[in-house]
Amino acid sequence: MSAATGPMAPLDREWMRHSPGQRIGRFLVWLAIVAAIVWAVRTVEIIPEFLADAPQQMGDLLIRMWPPDLAHYHPSVHAAMIETLHIATLGTILGLALAIPFALLAARNVCRNLALNTFAQLVLVSSRSVNSLVWALIFVAVFGPGPAAGVFAIAFRSIGFVGKLLAEALEETAPGPLEALTAAGAGWGARMLKGVWPQVQPAFWGVALFRWDINVRESAVLGLVGAGGIGVVLDDAINFFQWERVATILLAILAVVVIAEILVTRIRAKLL
Fold first, then answer.
1. Same domain membership, residue 81 and residue 56
2. Does residue 234 sit within a domain?
3. Which of 156, 153, 113 is nearest to 136 (CA)?
4. Which of 29, 52, 157, 245 is 20 to 30 A (C-alpha) from 137?
5. Rounded CA gap, 6 and 9, in Å?
6. Are 208 and 103 in contact (CB under 8 A)?
7. DSSP for residue 113
8. Tens-digit pLDDT profile for residues 129-161
9. Cβ neighbours of residue 240 under 8 Å, at least 6 residues apart?
10. The model scores a pTM over 0.85
11. Residue 180, domain extent
């Protein structure tokens, strides 16, 4: 803002949306973004010839995948799809069981020990920072190929997501019920069950359903690294260039994801 001197100064003021310092800061931010994009493009080394040929290759692939060979669905694709749902469900249940203790430790109004708070936050961040495929590779090395590795990969990936959201819900609880139960001489378990659980119950079930929906999608690709499920069948079909079977598998995955989304939405509406 610049101002003139004299009796007409209030009328001669010129208002600007951003100060010079703000404009320089915004320019530096945009410059950093452009520099990061240019650096990323140069790092990935995009080959112009392959990029120009990509639409033709994609069209050729779609032609090979059409029409889908639905005769391949039963029994192999169907059995693998059921296994995928089992991996997602068991992994979600195990992830919830493992996430609850860390959520309690991470919530500052429940656990007032700074060291335990920091440790729990570190565990939750570590869980979220590792992709489910990386967890699957780790557990394939531990348990060998199969759905057991997929279940543990889904569970350990879910700990950070569920634990963080549940810890935030715990920290937002009203202190009144806890104070009343404490004054009445209730123990820690009774305070959690009667004072905290009724307040966080809607958030808990909402997070659990949302995480299961995500896990259904993630478990569909774990088989690409040997962790069981529909991904194993998909990987085999791609390796043998059975594109009509690939289309059938992709349609099955799409159908299950859509059905899971509808179920989760309706159940959340009933619970919440």
1. no
2. yes
3. 153
4. 245
5. 5
6. no
7. -
8. 888 889 999 999 998 888 899 999 999 999 999
9. none
10. no
11. 72-271
